[in-house]
């Protein structure tokens, strides 16, 4: 009888431990969700996917040397364009995020169009980026009246609408990343630590990459 009671006591003790562990896990989940709001899950996921090492590997090293893609100039959406729109044209951030989403989605579709589905080493990565951006765009508010959109297009595309430019895939994705950081830095990225060895801080400041990377950014980047 004593042995049975001892076994029951140990079982009760382990049951209490398991219940306590479950509560702790729930608390950790609550803290994590609270630290990153639900509105920031997709931007934070995209931010992590677009770290410097991934952009170099999937958008440069997996392509032939000096490879470029022909895109309309309207799809070259640089950080300086956004800065100008915010500063000089007083465009609302809620208008710029859908515009960024639309441009980024079209850029990734252009890149996917030159890749062999499921065979090219960058296809899955690019497809995952597109899926995340599609989810973000679906949750974004609609842009403001046409006058604002016309102003945005004037800043982005001062040359004829059909003007085409040849741009490296990495430069296009770099622009996507830098504008993402600029548009979400205060609402979502203030807590994100910057990886060592070549990425961007929440303020959009570049950590040093290789000389070749910096040269490419000067020519094509934001």
Helix/strand layout:
Blueprint: H1 2-35, H2 41-49, H3 52-61, E1 69-72, H4 79-87, H5 93-113, H6 123-138, H7 146-156, E2 164-167, H8 169-184, H9 211-220
Antiparallel strand pairs: 1-2
Summarize the structure.
With 222 residues, the protein is mainly alpha-helical. It has helices at 2-35, 41-49, 52-61, 79-87, 93-113, 123-138, 146-156, 169-184, 211-220, and strands at 69-72, 164-167.
Describe the model.
With 222 residues, the protein is mainly α. It is built from 9 helices and 2 strands; from the N terminus they run H-H-H-E-H-H-H-H-E-H-H. The chain has helices at residues 2-35, 41-49, 52-61, 79-87, 93-113, 123-138, 146-156, 169-184, 211-220, and strands at 69-72, 164-167. It has a two-stranded antiparallel sheet with strand order 1-2. The longest helix has 34 residues, at 2-35. Residues 15-35 and 194-222 have low confidence and may be disordered.
List keywords for this structure.
222 residues, mainly alpha, two-stranded antiparallel ribbon, 9 helices, 4% strand, globular, disordered C terminus
